[in-house]
Amino acid sequence: MHFFEFTEEQKMLRKAVREFVDAEIAPKAAEWDEKDVCPVELFKKMGELGINGIFVPEQYGGAGQGSVARAICLEEISRHSAGLGIAMMTHHMGPYPILLYGTEEQKKKYIPDLCSGKKVGGLAVTEPGGGSDFSGQKTTGEKKDGGWVLNGRKCFITNSHIADTSVVTAKTGEDEKGRPKLSAFIVEKGTKGFEAGRKEHKLGLRGSVTGDVVLTDVKVPADALLGKEGDGAKIGMNAIGEVGRAGMSAICVGILRGCVEEAVKFSNERIVYGKPISKLQAIQFEVAKIRTYYEAARLMTYSAASLKDDGKPCANEVAMAKYFSTEYATDASKRLMDLMGGYGVINEYPVGRFLRDALASIPSGGTSHIMQIIIAANTLSGFQP
Ligand SMILES: Cc1cc2nc3c(=O)[nH]c(=O)nc-3n(C[C@H](O)[C@H](O)[C@H](O)COP(=O)(O)OP(=O)(O)OC[C@H]3O[C@@H](n4cnc5c(N)ncnc54)[C@H](O)[C@@H]3O)c2cc1C
Fold it and tell me: Which residue of 54, 275, 304, 385 shows the fewest CB atoms closer than 10 Å?
C-alpha cells in the first residue's frame, strides 16, 4: 500500500468543501432522500467551488487538484448526502474519459462547461443484459452518411435525466473471434432519439437520478467518436475502474464518518440506568468497530487515490478500497442502528439512510463479487507484499 498525508492545499479544500456542505447540503439531505429529488441547482455552486472539475487541469477549466482532492470532495458531500455524492461522482465520469481519450477539439468543446457547472456529465455503459458482463452489450453503432447511428437501451444510469453530456458505449463490430468491438461516443442532451426513459425508485442513494437512457436512431457526427473505433471497452473500463469505483469508495468513507459521528453523539446523549450508554462496554465495542472501519476505509481509499495521482496502476487498490468501504459502511450503519435501540429505526435520525445508501453503493460501479474477482486475479498472479 501507499501512504499519504494531505497537503496544505488539500486541507484548505477540505475546509472549504466542509463549510459548503454544512451550509447547503446537511440541512436538506433528509428531504432530498425522502422526496428523491436531485438538487441539480447545486451543480452551479459546486462548479464555482471547483468540485465539478476538481481533477481536470486548469487549462480546460478545472481545479487541477487530482484524485485525492476528488476523494476529499466526495467524502465531505457524502458525509451528509451520499445521493448527491453519487450524482457528482458520476458527473466526473463525463469529463474524465474525454480528458484521457478526447481530441484537443473535444476537450475544448465539452470539458470547460462540465467543470463550471453549466453542464452535467454522465457515463452510460450498463445494459439490461447485465452490467458485470461488459462484452454482452447490445447497443449498436453503425456508420452512416459520414457519422454514426446509435440504437439500444442503457439501464441503471446515474444522472440519466439530468446529464447534458454523456459518454455512451456501443457495439460497432466484432473482432476475429466474434467478440463485440465496443466504441465510445459523446452524446449531448437534445440529440434527436436520445431520451431518458424509466426512472428507478431506489432503496438508497436517493437524491440521485438513476434510470434508462434510450437510443432510437440517434445520429451523431463522426467527431462524436471518443478515442479510436474499438476503444470503447478500454474507455468504459478505465472510467469505471479508476474513477467510478474510487468515487464509490470515497462516498462510503463519507457514510462511515457519519456513522462514527452519530455513534459518538447518540451514545453520549442517551441516558439509560442513569448514565450515558457510552459508559457501557458493549456500546464502546461497537463504537470501536465503527471507528476502525472508517479509518481503514479512509486509508485504503486515499492511498488508492494517491497512487492514481502518482500515475501508478491502481485498479486493484481501487477494487480493494471499494469492496472494503461499501461492505463496511453497510456493516457499520447496521451496528449504529443496533447501538441506537428503537431510535435506530426512526427516520428522524440519518442512520436508516446511511444503511440504505451503503447497501445501494455495493452494486454501483461493480458488485462485491466482481471486486473480489479482480482482487483474487491480481493476488494469484503474483502477490508482492
Ligand atoms: C445506484 C446505481 C447507479 C449506477 N450508475 C451507473 C452509471 O452511471 N452508469 C452505468 O453504466 N452503470 C451504472 N450502474 C450499473 C452498475 O454498474 C451495475 O448495476 C453493476 O455493474 C452490476 O450489474 P447488474 O446490476 O446488471 O448485475 P449482474 O451483472 O446481472 O449481476 C447479478 C449477480 O451476479 C453476480 N455476478 C455477475 N458476474 C459474475 C461473475 N463473473 N462471477 C461471480 N458473480 C458474478 C453479481 O455480483 C451479482 O450478484 C449503477 C448501478 C446502481 C445500483
Answer: 385
CA of 366 to the centre of ligand 1 (A): 5
Q: Which helix (H) or strand (E) holds 106?
A: helix 104-116
In this prediction, residue 3 has a pLDDT band, given cuts at 50, 70 and 90, of low
Q: What share of the chain is helix, strand, coil (3-state, %, to 5)?
A: 55, 15, 30
For the stretch 82-135, pLDDT in tens is 999 999 999 999 999 999 999 999 999 999 999 999 999 999 999 998 788 888
Q: Please choose from 364, 368, 371, 374 the residue to mutate so as to test ligand 1's pocket, defined by most ligand atoms within 8 A of CB.
A: 364
For residue 263, report the distance from its CA to the centre of ligand 1, in Å.
31
Atom in ligand 1 nearest the alpha carbon of residue 127? 26
Q: Angle, nearest 10°, between helix axes 104-116 and 42-49? A: 110
**Which residue segments constitute the domains of the chain, with CATH numbers given?**
8-120 (1.10.540.10), 122-233 (2.40.110.10), 240-380 (1.20.140.10)
pLDDT per position as a tens digit, 165-174: 999 999 999 9
